[in-house]
Specification:
- By secondary structure, this protein is mostly beta strands.
- The protein has 2 domains: 204 residues, no CATH class; 84 residues, Sandwich (Immunoglobulin-like), CATH 2.60.40.3080.
- It has 4 helices and 22 strands.
- The strands form 5 sheets. It has an 8-stranded antiparallel sheet.
- The longest helix is centred in the first third of the chain and has 10 residues.
- It is globular and about 60 Å long.
- It starts with a helix and ends with a strand.
């Protein structure tokens, strides 16, 4: 019964946030992406309204460059038009009139998604293409006090073949949708090709709101000192042409990257006075004392890889974290609640 209750806790946090879905479209946002259109750095902002088929859309303006830059509206080009409706983001591509669902943040674990994957460039427009994805995991991440639903999506065939304890290995190749931001593969999300090993060449590097950075993830690529959101094309890539290397690694097992601001924000100082026990731990460990509310727990390996991220509702004064599939070793346990943050060490000794 306790294990069943824990499973319910792990899967249920999203329901507490599902009533109000954080909007994606706002005039104060800038998206920086690498790999859009032949491994260029591209920035996007919303432009003027446009009306098509009696519906109002926001124009998306794109600005691509081979050097670090700020978004220059006078040099930008119309890419597509977007609108939001009941947790869905709907796109009409340049030179087309038909709508496609770009994101659907109302989906949950087990749901299948007809995944829209545009191909082409923003000068000529794109050709619509679909692949089928399945949501195999969800969680909630907090950035600057905003709780955002995150969906992990992959090929249903691959997901259904693997037992639940093995599905964490899919994270590095999954497409991850982040409510209010888009996808880790860019504003115009692209599902990774099945069987591809290593990081996708498409990457959401930054999201800024009113000039403040709320998301940053360069996945181990070399970033410019002038503009941390600008990725320097790896050696052997062909910036501006088709093909080229996808670049270095550096991604962690969640697929969110070692420089990802999603992971608990600033932990330069620990302010939450808690303990974890037993330590060493085997099958699980507990975090206590806690006050009722929510806690986010992140388990980091000694090599810096993020292994598990939980967002749990605290109803007593402690929570239990399972260690299924976690190997023996020394780990960091990062926690965040409304009371503060902490960074603790945990030794895991498995049989």
């Amino acid at each position: 019964m306790k294990r069943l209750f824990l499973n319910i806790l792990l899967l249920s946090p999203l329901s507490f946030f599902a009533q109000d879905i954080e909007p994606l479209l706002s005039a104060d946002k800038t998206w920086s992406c690498y790999g859009d259109y032949f491994f260029l750095n591209v920035k996007y902002r919303l432009g003027a309204d446009t009306v098509m088929n009696g519906k109002t859309y926001k124009k998306v303006m794109a600005h691509g460059s081979d050097i670090p830059f700020n978004f220059d509206e006078s040099q930008s080009q119309y890419k597509s038009a977007l609108r939001e409706e009941n947790g869905k983001v709907i796109v009409v591509e340049k030179n087309f009139i038909n709508e496609h669902i770009l994101y659907d943040y109302t989906k949950n674990v087990g749901d299948t998604i007809r995944f829209y994957r545009p191909i082409g460039d923003f000068n000529q427009g794109v050709l619509p293409q679909y692949v089928i994805g399945k949501v195999y995991k969800t969680d909630v991440v907090t950035m600057q006090g905003v709780a955002r639903k995150r969906l992990f999506i992959h090929d249903p065939y691959m997901v259904d073949l693997l037992p639940p304890q093995a599905q964490g290995g899919l994270d590095s190749q999954a497409d991850i949708w982040i409510e209010g931001l888009g996808s880790k593969t860019g504003l115009f999300s692209r599902m990774p090709e099945w069987g591809v090993i290593g990081p996708t060449p498409y990457l959401l590097t930054c999201v800024e709101v009113n000039g403040n950075l709320v998301y940053s993830n360069n996945l181990g690529y070399e970033a410019s000192t002038e503009d941390p959101c600008f990725i320097i094309p790896p050696e052997g890539s062909n910036s501006g042409g088709g093909g080229g290397s996808t670049g270095g690694g550096g991604s962690d097992s969640t697929g969110t990257g070692g420089n990802d601001s999603l992971i608990l924000g600033n932990l330069s100082s620990s302010t939450l006075k808690i303990k974890i026990y037993p330590n060493p731990a085997r099958e699980s460990f507990f975090i206590s004392p806690l006050k009722p509310g929510y806690i986010k727990v992140c388990l980091i390996s000694s090599s810096g890889n993020t292994l598990d991220v939980y967002t749990l509702r605290v109803e007593g004064n402690s929570v239990r974290i399972p260690l299924d599939g976690i190997k023996s070793g020394l780990y960091q346990v990062l926690t965040e609640t409304s009371e503060g943050v902490s960074r603790l060490r945990l030794l895991i000794e498995q049989d």
